[in-house]
Amino acid sequence: GLGKEYPPVERIADGQVANKADWPWQASLQVDGIHFCGASLISEEWLLTAAHCFDTYKNPKLWMASFGTTLSPPLMRRQVQSIIVHENYAAHKHDDDIAVVKLSTPVLFSEDVHKVCLPNATFEVLPKSKVFVTGWGALKANGPFPNTLRQVQVEIISNDVCNQVNVYGGAVSSGMICAGFLTGKLDACEGDSGGPLVIAQERNIWYLIGIVSWGIGCGKENKPGLYTRVTHYRDWIKSKTNIYIIMVFQFPSTGQRTLREKKIHNILNQKIRNARALPIDVSSVQVNGCGKRAVPLIVNRIMSGELAAKAAWPWQASLQRSNIHQCGATLISDKWLVTAAHCFKNNANPRQWTVTFGTTINPPLMKREVKRIIVHERYRSPAREYDIAVVQFYPRVTFSDDIRRICLPEASASFPPNSTVYITGFGALYYGGESQNNLREAKVKIISNAVCKQPQVYGNDIKFGMFCAGYLEGIYDACRGDSGGPLVVKDLKDTWYLIGIVSWGDNCGQKNKPGVYTQVTYYRRWIASKTECGARPDLITLSEERIIGGTLAEEGDWPWQVSLQLNNVHHCGGILISNTWILSAAHCFRSYSNPQQWTATFGISTTSPTLKVRVKSILLHNDYKTSTHENDIAAVQLERAVTFTKNIHRVCLPEATQNIIPGSTAYVTGWGSLTYGGNTVTDLRQGQVTIINSNVCNAPTGYNGAVLSGMLCAGVPEGGVDACQGDSGGPLVQEDSRRLWFLIGIVSWGYQCGLPDKPGVYTRVTAYRNWIKEQTGV
């Protein structure tokens, strides 16, 4: 598991020899085979260490990482591919002493080598907590390094105590953590720079809270060790390595009523989507790609529920409560499952659930803890619509032949009636039977809605977002105990897609009562909005007859768009980047900087919004200049966190290094006026624009050099579509190849409105990526 380790209770404190596999995340960073620094493994390919390790040798090619408790022989070695030192680190100071190191090839986790957990930014460690530091450091100042990893138990000392005159006299900043003993003796010594300071939490999960940074001498009185405080740099680490921790939020559990009641809400039938062949998921080619399995499908099986071969259905999971199988589930990434909402009807407390993988329930191939359960907001038992939920587990799994993720179909994909599909699960073999220990599979056919809605079958109980599969004559079917499990289909390239989730059915394999499944394509965007940033409904390319300011948007089209209102009147746009932070333009607050006058509203109408939240604080860029529009960016903090839904969620932020390509298409949204000097509109509008090279934009006929490096131009050269006043602070976004949306610009200035040669000028988000992180932690 992640960060699991069981230390013996009595440790001699000034440096015990560690046992093999005691500290599996410990690495040694070496130059020419000589141990230089410690480091901690935080993912398959990233190490976290101290910046000062690279003061002398900065070239990654000189470095090698070794794993295992002995320096020679090491258990495993890896070349270093790149070294990223904190931008603000300077060799003569101790601040921001942190760096991440990327390995040239990922490590395979085992009992002896695996990652430590990273704490959330809000994780607090109290003074006097017992923590451990490990390394191959010298046992005394300037002494030789031992060959075997050593461990020391030390205590956290508060920064206030550590800053006392006789200790470090104010040199300890908020980005540092102090640990050791004021009496001296026990400490991390030089040569351990960059190594881990860890603490055990409940269930023996170990968290990395400090990186050995500096100290005076070695184990001297009143000179404890100083460590880089990991929580303080959590977002910096995330921005460099993309190792995420997702915010946890709770939802009320649904009432306990039986599934059998047939009171079903009427919901408007969704428009039938255009039929379209399945797109090929390029990622399925790699091992970590989805929907590939190591075992070929044997076609002529007679299926009344055959036993499944090992590794045949590597995405199948079992959701268990108190170690008893309750529902099936399907792996869609290395930490998310999709299943049925009704599984959690009586209990949605993540702590009581576990997940197992493999073709037998006992013994399982692998077991994981559940971190979060998100049931569809509109699911209401006993009705059966919206019967879908996603489950986040931890630690992540490493994909192998036996454990792989399934592919999700595009929202527009459709599957013709009579297609052959497969269901798998540990369900009962007959109605009322016990669930089985071994995974079984059955081959069934999709039944058209026309047939399934016949009165003798299910009539009007079949709503949008459901479909039927099985055989009308009965026999094979998914039986109880398989709720939540997968219904999958294979494309021509042998890639498997999840198209249904076992939802309900009357009895089991009865005549005219096939299984009913939640249709995954309908919920494709919902799944993305819960498990990824920047997801939104499919974009219909905007028509050519453009009104200035584009066309009207629909609810949920741009879920990160915010209206910032001054005394309840729309004043500026804003962009949701986390559940508590909004970005906007600094010039919006030039005359009105009192947060109490501002509210943020969500939804496409500024006058009847779906949600209103007060503003807690407004942070303007310190170097904002009104005359040149430089640094026109502000971060706005909400008084309370919003809950993400399909219609309200965050946009993705680009990396600082991301290139914005001139000529590419982007979208601008807002409630700006339709004409120069006109009033703002009450309904959200959208405009499609093109990114314009800044040199072109700075031509004498254009802005003549006024567009600076922190700005971005976008518009239509002939004019006409543009963001007009009243939209200041609103988003300019682009879609990437995974169909996630990224914020690239914030509406800043422009000459009048939609004139030729005078396109809109935006604050270039990539240029302020570090500022955003410093202010908001995002």
TrEMBL record:
Taxonomic superkingdom: Eukaryota
Keywords: Disulfide bond, Hydrolase, Membrane, Protease, Serine protease, Transmembrane
Residue ranges of domain Peptidase S1 in the record: 12-242, 302-532, 547-777
Keyword Repressor: no
A GO molecular-function annotation: serine-type endopeptidase activity
InterPro entries cross-referenced by the UniProt entry: Peptidase_S1_PA, Peptidase_S1_PA_chymotrypsin, Peptidase_S1A, Trypsin_dom, TRYPSIN_HIS, TRYPSIN_SER
Keyword Transcription set for record: no
One Pfam family, short name: Trypsin
Designated name of the protein: Transmembrane protease serine 11A
Organism: Sciurus carolinensis (Eastern gray squirrel)
